[in-house]
Amino acid sequence: MFARTALSYDPLPLPDRTDLSPAEMQDKAEAFLKHMQQRHTVRDFTDQPVERSVIETCIRTAGSAPSGANHQPWFFAAISDPALKARIREEAEEEERRFYEGGAGDEWIKALEPIGTDAHKPHLTIAPWLIVVFAQRWGEFDDGTRYKNYYVPESVNIATGFLLAALHTAGLSTLTHTPNPMKFLNGALGRPASEKPTMIIAVGHPTADATVPSVAKMKKPLEEISAFF
């Protein structure tokens, strides 16, 4: 994407502009809030197929996120192959068993009790898609030499938020999963040492009897998450 000879500032007129009245702004803000409040993390998926084109479009949305120096330091590996999903599940569950058998510590395990999780991760093979998010710690110019990426965690986190919102908007449910450590994903997916896996996102449709833990509906009120000066 980047060539040493093409690194120059070239300002363009703002290509897209929105001009809403205060009332229209409030309406849109409230509509988006209601839409996102209907997003739920689920652990009970069906194997109902999801078209690849839908996943591609949602990843394109993620790729439109802002990033440090516009280096776009992310990579999204989308997996529907059953054998590869089974391999990822096997290795993820091995890491999870270590986690729940003492690697996490008593306080962390206690904090997870209201969520109802354990080392068993059937969603990794049942959900029709897994999307593994990678953070690219450095990139390469077209001549193969390295360049540094900036604000990598912040940039990747913003893009992941875009992705989750896009998947929800497409009518899909998701589960974010972070086995620790996750280095096995580089080998399973053939990704280079410059990339660090940050998350596995299971994507699909919830079962008819899917549930969410009641604690998941407990969100901090505005006054606890913000201050206005």
From TrEMBL:
It holds the Pfam family Nitroreductase. GO terms for molecular function: ligase activity; oxidoreductase activity. Signal peptide: none annotated. The keyword Lipid metabolism does not apply. Residues 37-205 form the Nitroreductase domain. Keywords: Flavoprotein, FMN, Ligase, Oxidoreductase. It comes from Phaeobacter italicus. This is F420-0--gamma-glutamyl ligase.
